[in-house]
Amino acid sequence: MNQESESINAKEIKKRRTFAIISHPDAGKTTLTEKLLLFGGAIQQAGSVKGRKADRHATSDWMEMEKQRGISVTTSVMQFEHKNAIMNLLDTPGHEDFSEDTYRTLTAVDSALMVIDVAKGVENRTIKLMEVCRLRTTPILTFINKLDREGKEPIELLDEVESVLNIECAPMTWPIGMGKRFKGVYHLYEDTIHLFSATHGGKIMQGETIKGLDNPELDALVGDQAEELREEIELVKGASHEFNLEAYLAGTQTPVFFGSAINNFGILELLDAFADYAPSPQGREADQRFVSAQEENFSGFVFKVQANMDPSHRDRIAFLRICSGKFDKGMKINHVRIGKKIQVGNAITFKADSRKNIEEAYSGDIIGLHNHGTIQVGDTFSEGEVLKYSGIPYFAPELFRRVVLKDPLRGKALQKGLVQLTEEGATQLFKPLKNNDLILGAVGILQFDVTAFRLKAEYNVECVYDNVSINTARWVSSDNPAKFEEFKKKAFDNLAKDGGGYLVYLASSRVNLQLTEERWPDIKFSATREL
Ligand code: GDP
Questions:
Q1: CA 262 to chain centre
Q2: At 507, phi and psi to the nearest 5?
Q3: CA of 24 to the centre of ligand 1 (A)
Q4: Is residue 262 in contact with ligand 1, taking CB distance under 6 Å?
Q5: Which of 526, 529, 523 has the alpha carbon at shortest distance from 478?
Q6: DSSP E strands, 206-252
Q7: What's the pTM?
C-alpha cells in the first residue's frame, strides 16, 4: 500500500464513530435513534424506525419472529453522517428481544449514548448495561429525555446518576423549566439559549437561539424563568463537574444533555458534541499483541450471528466489527478458528433503510458476512498475520429453564439442536454434574421461545420447559488446586458444565451465591466468561 492510500485510510478511520444507545425500555431509545437518523439525513421521515417495533409482542408465531429478526438485520447497524463524522449506530435489542446480543454488541462499540427518562431516573436495565460498558471502559454521553414532561429535579437526577452509576456528571446543557414550563436548554459552554416551541414537531428545525445568558431578550421571551435560570446556572457551575475530555474518554465522566427526543429538541447539541468528542475507532488487544485501528492490514471479530431476513434461506448473517485496516470486496482473509483462508465476495454493509453489497469498509465499520454455519460469535478474521481477538464475553444468564423433551426418542436430535443453537450465542446450555438435565440459560425471556420454535422448525424436536430453582450462574476457577478440588466435592450438586466445558456454579438465590462466595475465598466466581 502506498503512502497516499494509507493516509486516505487514516482519514476515513478517524471519521468513524461506532456507538450504541443504552437505556431502560421506554426511556426513548427508538425515538432518539430516529431523530439521529433524521439529522444525519439517513431517513427522510419520522416513523421509519418506529415501524420495526410494531410486532414486538408477537412472541408465539415463528414466522413473525423470523420476520421481526429479519427486519432488525437491516436496522442492526445504521450508518449516517454528521459534521463530517461517519456514525455507525449499533442497535442493542431491548424489550422482549433483549438478549446476550445486547450485551455483546457493547463490546463492539467505541462509545455509548445513555438515555434516561427524566421522571424515572436511573433504572435497572441501564445499570446492567452500564456494567457491561465498564468491562471495556467505554466513554458514555448522557441524554436526559422527556423534559416536556414533569420529572425529577435536574440536580437531583445528576446526583442519582453519580451515586448509582458511579460516574461523574458534567452538564453540557441545562433545561429551562420542565413539563408545561419547559422553555428550552442553555448550553453552558457556548453560552447560548435554545428555545423550545411546541411547533418544533418532528422537523429538523432548530427554533430560536439567543446568545448570552444575560441577554435581555431572554427576559422578554421567558419572563421570570430567565432570572431563575441565571440563579440556577450559577449554582450548577459551582456544584457540578466541568467537562473534561480526558475524563470522558477514560469513562470516568459523562457529559450530560437535556431535551425531548419526541420533539426533536436538544438532540443537535448532543449530536454535535458526539461528533466532536466521541472516540474514533480504538485499537484492541489480540492474543498475540495490541492491534491499532490504523494498521494497514484488515482484522475484525464477529460479535453477533443473526437469522437472515428471508426465512426460506437458511443462511445467517455474521456481524463483524472491523478492528484494523480496510475491507476490500473479494479479499482473502484468515478464518482463524478453523485455520482456513476464505475469500469474501459478498459482504453486506448497512445503511439506514437498505442493504447492499459493499466494495470497501474501514476500521470501526460493521460488515455482514453470509454464514452457513461456519462462523460463530467470537471468531476472528485477519489479513496476512494470524490474529485472535478475545474479550468477547459470555454473560451469566439471569433466567433458567430445564428443557424437557416431548418424544424421548429424539434425545440425540435435541442435544445436537441445542448445541448448535447455543453456539449462536443468544442462549447458553448447562449440563449439571449430578444428573442428565439440560438447562438453558438466557438474559432475555424471548430467547426461550425462539429456541423452542427453532428446535421444532430446524431440528424437528418438540420440547417444553420446566422451571428450575436457579437464580444465577458464575464461572468458577481457582489458583489453589487443592481448594478447588475440595470446592468441587462440596459444591457438586450446584456445579454444571457450560457449552465450552467450563465449570459453572448454579446458585439457587443471590443469598446462596453470596454465602458460597464468602465461604470459599480461594475460589473466583465470575459473572462473565471470555470466549
Ligand atoms: P424505547 O423503548 O427506549 O425505544 O422508547 P421509545 O422511543 O419507544 O419511547 C417510549 C415512549 O416514550 C413512546 O411512547 C414515545 O413516544 C415516548 N417518548 C419518547 N421521547 C419522548 C419525549 O421526549 N417526551 C415524551 N413526552 N414522550 C417521549
A1: 22
A2: -95, 140
A3: 11
A4: yes
A5: 523
A6: 209-211
A7: 0.87
Q: Is the CB of 30 under 6 A from ligand 1?
A: yes
Q: What domains lie within the chain, and their CATH numbers? A: 8-277 (3.40.50.300), 292-382 (3.40.50.300), 396-530 (3.30.70.3280)
For 137-195, write each residue's pLDDT tens digit: 999 999 999 999 999 999 999 999 999 999 999 999 999 999 999 999 999 999 999 99
Q: Ligand 1 centroid to 128 CA: how many Å?
A: 20
- Determine the atom of ligand 1 nearest the C-alpha atom of 263: 23
pLDDT tens, position by position, 196-255: 875 555 455 566 889 999 999 999 989 999 999 999 999 999 989 999 999 999 999 999
DSSP state of 252: S
- Ligand 1: centre distance to CA 148 (Å): 11
Query: How much distance in Å is there from the Cα of 19 to the middle of ligand 1?
Result: 20
Cα–ligand 1 centroid distance for 129 (angstroms): 19
User: For every residue of 2-16, which 3-state class applies, written as one string?
Assistant: CHHHHHHHHHHHHHE
pLDDT digits (tens, 9 = 90+) for 441-464: 998 888 898 899 889 988 899 999
**CB-side exposure of 147: number of CA atoms within 13 Å?**
31
Model-level ipTM above the cut of 0.95? yes
Cβ contact 299:383 at 8 Å: yes
Q: Which atom of ligand 1 is nearest to the CA of 32?
A: 7
Return the residue whose CA atom lies nearest to atom 14 of ligand 1. 26
Tell me, using a 6 A CB cutoff, whether residue 266 lines ligand 1: no
Q: Using most ligand atoms within 8 A of CB, pick from 21, 30, 31, 113 the residue to mutate for ligand 1.
A: 31
Residue with CA nearest ligand 1 atom 9: 28
Cell 469474501 -> residue: 344
Please answer whether residues 170 and 242 qualify as being in contact, where contact means their C-beta atoms are separated by less than 8 angstroms: yes
